[in-house]
Amino acid sequence: MTPTGYFLDHLWMIPLFPLATAALMLFFGKRLPNSGISVLCVGSVGLSFLFALGAVFQLLAVAPEHRVAQEIMFEWLTPGPMQMTGGHAIRFVADWGFLLDPLSCVMVLVVTGVGFLIHVYSVDSMAHEVGSYLFFG
Questions:
Q1: What does pTM read for this prediction?
Q2: What angle is formed at CA 39 by the lines to CA 33 and CA 43, rounded to 5 degrees?
Q3: Whole-number pLDDT of residue 35
Q4: Interior/surface letters 73-112, b for 16+ CB within 10 angstroms, e for the rest
């Protein structure tokens, strides 16, 4: 049984928010005021933290033996069958996707939570800098 829920079904959105904002800063950051840059960048990391928190709570609501959520997006490497010694052939496939288990729950909360705190702290120190969009991007 694979756990489901909105946040667990949309794990791919956790890294999407900061990546999209970084791209926005690359292309349009020079034209934005510092207050807009701060709101967008801090807000995107905060939104990632909230999505991660939602996914962790949904995963913790499942029975302990089923606390693994996996979302495979596509097959990344598919070299085909490989001959092993003894005449056995195995099929190697490297999938691209997202996996959330109890250990990765801790890591995703630490990374997004500390990243959010770093962004909040940096707003004040970068308030009067000219290229703050480069820093946040």
A1: 0.83
A2: 150
A3: 85
A4: eeeeeeeeeeeeeeeeeeeeeeeeebebeeebbeebeebb
